[in-house]
Design brief:
397 residues; mainly alpha; Lysozyme; 2 domains; two-stranded antiparallel sheet; disordered N terminus; disordered C terminus; FlgJ; bacterial flagellum biogenesis; periplasm; glycosidase; flagellum
């Protein structure tokens, strides 16, 4: 893929909003192209163009990248424009290209008080840290184009998104089909006084990229899909994220036996929480309990959520608000102690519940998924670093 070697913004042009916007759009476009290429390299197979049809695949990916920056785009161009324009008003006049520090500062999304690291970036780990700093508290709406791009590349999306690629703002067209999330109902959303305890944008994107590579219907893909939420919940509870993932895997059969409604909709109930005292939506299904060591089938109602994030948030509330789980939380990052505390508190009637959680948590499936997420995060870091360097012409010669 051909990358524009540099974007120059002379001092006289930095007061020209049109020129600043043009440079910001170009830079966002370069990032989108590299991001799509990175996603394609990390994706699991090639569902649209199998075999050797690389030319058509590259043309298709180019179309996706162009669509990502139409309309509101990724949200980067507006941020870059503000940073570039603000630098002209606040700083001394420059007689050359934008320097490395300004270039990296232009990418800061929600960490304006943090010092922008100098570029070029020497390694992927440093790039990942920079991306995580940039995206701390970023609204999930910023991730919509990137997450939908992953769905397109992995072949998981319907034809509606393919049809919208040629529109002036495909993501705006898509959003008409589903209402925007109500931020006020997001228990982990960032506010003016709280940076938010939910997963960062970069962590979420790395997890999504790992799912695309591993396959959404594999045990590893299930782990990757909920890992970012598990980390957030584990931090709130003071426990090991692997314990929460293991419990969700046990309750749902690695996502293959999730509780569903009569019409087939998933309840997103990852922890088998029953609907006792629950005023929200619920799903009634057949289940089993152990009475005096004997397994018995029964029908029960379970809580239903709008998303996995809501399921994790409710799980956190349940454990923190109910005194009987205090002993489990006191076990901290001791997975076996935490699981034993849940069982002793009556969370489940299966006499082997704690041992099963501990076994899954220490097994290879979670390790493989976490490693894939780490690789995806490193790839995102390299993509960001190489794109910024090439686009701004500040890479070492």
């Amino acid at each position: 893929m051909r990358i524009q070697p540099s974007f120059e913004l002379n001092p006289s042009q930095r007061n020209d909003p049109a020129q600043v916007d043009k440079v910001a759009r170009q830079l966002e476009g370069q990032f989108a192209q590299m991001l799509v290429k990175s996603m394609r390299d990390a994706s699991f197979g090639d569902s649209l163009f199998p075999g050797e049809n690389t030319m058509f695949r590259e043309m298709y990916d180019q179309k996706i990248a162009e669509s990502m920056t139409r309309g509101k785009g990724l949200g980067l161009s507006a941020v870059i424009s503000r940073q570039l324009s603000g630098a002209a008003a606040e700083g001394p006049a420059l007689d050359g290209r934008i320097n490395a520090t300004e270039a990296s500062r232009a990418y800061q999304l929600n960490a304006p008080a943090a010092e922008a690291p100098a570029m070029p970036l020497e390694d992927a780990d440093q790039a990942v840290r920079m991306l995580q700093q940039m995206a701390a508290g970023t609204s999930p709406r910023l991730l919509q184009p990137m997450e939908q791009t992953l769905d397109l590349i992995a072949g998981r999306d319907s034809s509606s998104m393919h049809q919208a690629l040629g529109s002036s703002d495909p993501y705006a067209a898509q959003s008409l089909a589903a209402p925007a999330p109500v931020v006020a109902e997001d228990q982990w959303a960032a506010t003016s006084t709280n940076r938010g305890t939910g997963p960062s944008a970069i962590d979420t994107l790395a997890s999504s990229s790992a799912v695309a590579r591993l396959g959404s219907h594999t045990p590893e893909g299930f782990v990757a899909g909920i890992w970012a939420h598990a980390q957030t919940a584990a931090k709130e509870l003071g426990v090991d994220a692997r314990a929460l993932v293991a419990q969700a895997a046990l309750e749902t059969g690695w996502g293959k036996r999730q509780i569903t409604h009569g019409d087939g909709r998933t309840s997103h109930n990852l922890f088998g929480i029953k609907a006792t005292g629950w005023s929200g939506d619920r799903a009634t299904v057949g289940t089993h309990e152990y009475v005096n060591g004997a397994r018995r089938n029964e029908t029960a109602s379970f809580r239903s959520y709008s998303s996995p994030a809501e399921s994790f948030a409710d799980y956190v509330r349940l454990l923190k608000s109910n005194p009987r789980y205090q002993k489990a939380l006191e076990a901290g990052t001791d997975v076996r102690g935490f699981a034993r505390g849940l069982q002793q508190a009556g969370y489940a009637t299966d006499p082997s519940y704690a041992n099963k959680i501990a076994s899954i948590a220490g097994g290879p499936t979670i390790e493989r998924a976490v490693a894939a997420i780490g690789d995806a995060g490193a790839q995102l870091g390299r993509t960001f670093a190489s794109t910024a360097q090439a686009a701004l012409g500040i890479a070492r010669r």
